[in-house]
Amino acid sequence: MRFSSLFLLRRFFTIFVVAQLLVLTLVEACYPQGASTSVSAEGDTYVCLVLSPLTWGYTVGSASLVGKFLRIPTKVKADQFSRINVFGAWNSTTYTTDALMSSLSISAAAGNGVGVSVSSMGISSYQKAYRLTDSTSSKTFPLLMVLITVDMGKVVSITWDDTCKWCPASKCLANTYDFNGAAVSTGNSACWVSDTTCGFTTASGSVIASQLCDLQVYVAWTGIDSAGRYFESAAKRFSRLLSTQVTNYTATLAAAQNSL
């Protein structure tokens, strides 16, 4: 993976993107207007994260966007295993004081939360819950992975990979939703962390937030590019690795982030 030191301040929190962050106008489908939608291995292409309320009501393919949302466009190399890290996305256990949650007007009522979807070349994924209040507690799903499928250079689907190999079964939960906030039964699961673990209030009243709960979305590719070459990065996705490999990786990542 290639790392960048580019930062962008947006709505009180900072977005750090391992891929190249774009300062350009994109159409809703996540590519510059007039640009080619053909994808070739190791060639530049575009991937967008969209953060929104789980129940924002967006319809895939519609020119009309409903409700508040935040789109994060990035330029990546197709078939390069990439990570998009939204640094500072989590900063409070209280939804009304958290910068991201409050900017999207999300309350702490059961069933509410922040959804993240991925789009590229006119194709969008379902939503994954990044933060969610359910009947038992408020949870954060900090580590997600998406798989982009390409057929002869055309993006044909974007699906979520299972990322539960770094946590016990008790911390693994289905968290895939449609754009009306209904659970998608065919969606994969992800590990969750209690919001009380992500941050705590000190005796002086200040909130200490853990960087480990910032949103991280990994991107892998499968299929065939515009020149007939097979993509290979799908072999690196977490569901293909041994549990010990993923656990060791996340432990190393935690140590690196705690040293920042």
Low-confidence region ranges: 1-26, 252-260
Distance between the termini: 19 Å
Number of strands: 19
> What percent of residues adopt helix (DSSP H or I)?
under 10%
Helix and strand composition category: mainly beta
C-alpha Rg (nearest Å): 18 Å
Shape: globular
- Please, how many helices? 3
- Let me know the average pLDDT: 79
Sheet with the most strands?
9 strands, antiparallel
Order of helices and strands: EEEEEEHEEEEEEEEEEHEEEH
How many domains is the backbone divided into? 1
Note the beta-strand portion: 35-45%
Task: Set out the fold topology.
Blueprint: E1 7-10, E2 13-17, E3 20-21, E4 44-53, E5 70-77, E6 82-86, H1 99-103, E7 113-120, E8 123-124, E9 127-133, E10 138-140, E11 143-151, E12 154-160, E13 172-174, E14 176-177, E15 189-191, E16 193-194, H2 195-198, E17 199-201, E18 207-209, E19 215-223, H3 243-258
Parallel strand pairs: 11-19
Antiparallel strand pairs: 1-2, 2-6, 3-5, 4-5, 4-7, 6-19, 7-8, 7-9, 9-10, 9-14, 10-16, 11-12, 13-15, 17-18
Question: Could you walk me through the main structural features you see in this protein, from its secondary elements to its overall organization?
Answer:
The structure is a single chain. This protein has one domain (7-258). It is 10% helix and 37% strand. The protein has helices at 99-103, 195-198, 243-258, and strands spanning 7-10, 13-17, 20-21, 44-53, 70-77, 82-86, 113-120, 123-124, 127-133, 138-140, 143-151, 154-160, 172-174, 176-177, 189-191, 193-194, 199-201, 207-209, 215-223. The strands form four sheets. Strands 3, 4, 5, 7, 8, 9, 10, 14 and 16 form a nine-stranded antiparallel beta sheet that branches. A six-stranded mixed beta sheet has the order 1-2-6-19-11-12, with no helix packed on it. A two-stranded antiparallel ribbon has the order 13-15.
